Amino acid sequence: MNWIKKGLLYAPEKNFWWNMAYGMIPTPVYLEELNIIRIFFGVTDADRNSRITYLDLNADDPSEVVYTAHHYVLDIGIPGMFDDCGVVPCCVLQKGGEEFLYFVGFQRCEKVPYMLFPGVAISPTGKNEFKRFSAAPIIDRTINNPVSSAAPYVLFDEGVYKMWYWRGKEWTKINEKPYIRAEITYAESNNGLNWEHSDILCIDPDPVTEFSVGRPWVLKENGLYKMWYSVRYIDRLYRLGYAESTDGKAWVRKDESVGIEVSESGWDSEMICYPAVIKVKERTLLFYNGNDNGKTGFGYAELQA
């Protein structure tokens, strides 16, 4: 792969109390009938609580922002719930006449910085009036998953809803700062709402050079599953990874083929993370965050034919 960077699409606007910082985890969905690419993303207020908003791109020219929402479509959860300190999007699945917005909820803690768990909110297609399916997370703690879960990507495939998600293994310290050591795992559902846990490990960080992998994004082409994800290294910041699978469960890492690196200067010169890849007409587009986990916003790249 060879990705051609097209530049920054969104930087924090700071024009409302709820969008004072960040543009986290760009989550695209192609709305063919409107000829737009809608990008959902998370923004934070002055207290670092995140909410989900969106912007629209011209599908014929993705560099053109045709609309930026002046409202958020999903608020933080009520006090005491898994998402009472913030929500960020992860993927959007169009199901019949509805959109399922899978998201991650944040909750701050005393002995570790936070907990993360995934949820889902539902809206009539195109209405952007999302309501939570449940006040509880859709993937919760289990015996084999006692820490956190996050970044669900859901694909309806072969009559089954398939989810690849980030699973926390333990808290660890890198340069005296606490981080979650995480891997990418797999789950299935009959309806996209109620999920069966599995112990299937898809991508595990290299114990020598890495401490976390996350935010999986999966496409299936000609029977081959392709996954893009974030890799957090012990001695450097995030980069993107890539893997392939014939069954969606056993994956072969091919990070050397990902085809994109940090820039020499600018908004994505220190890190690139949280990838999302979609095909729109004749284009294959990669949306991603740059420096400081999205504090500089997000941009995109296009796959060279």
Q: What layout of secondary structure does this protein have?
A:
Layout lengths: L2 E8 L10 E11 L4 E9 L5 E9 L2 E8 L17 E10 L2 E11 L5 E11 L6 E2 L16 E9 L2 E15 L2 E13 L5 E2 L4 E3 L6 E12 L2 E10 L5 E7 L6 E2 L19 E8 L2 E7 L1 H4 L3 E6 L2
Write a structural description.
This protein is mostly beta strands. The chain is built from 1 helix and 21 strands. The chain has one helix at 291-294; strands at 3-10, 21-31, 36-44, 50-58, 61-68, 86-95, 98-108, 114-124, 131-132, 149-157, 160-174, 177-189, 195-196, 201-203, 210-221, 224-233, 239-245, 252-253, 273-280, 283-289, 298-303. The strands form 5 sheets. Strands 10, 11, 12, 13 and 14 form a 5-stranded antiparallel β-sheet that branches. Strands 1-21-20-19 form a 4-stranded antiparallel β-sheet. A 4-stranded antiparallel β-sheet has the order 2-3-4-5, with no helix packed on it. The model has no long low-confidence stretch (mean pLDDT 95).
Spell out the key features of this protein.
305 residues, mainly beta, four-stranded antiparallel sheet, 1 helix, five-stranded antiparallel sheet
In short:
The chain is mainly β and 305 residues long.
How many H/I helices?
A: 1
Sheet-strand content, in percent, reads over 45%
Largest β-sheet summary: 5 strands, antiparallel
Helix content: under 10%
Our Rg estimate from Cα atoms comes to 18 Å
| Gap from first CA to last CA | 9 Å
- The class by helix and strand makeup works out as mainly beta
The number of distinct β-strands equals: 21
Low-confidence stretches: none
State the order of secondary-structure elements, H for helix, E for strand: EEEEEEEEEEEEEEEEEEEEHE
Shape, please?
Answer: globular
| Average predicted local confidence, pLDDT | 95
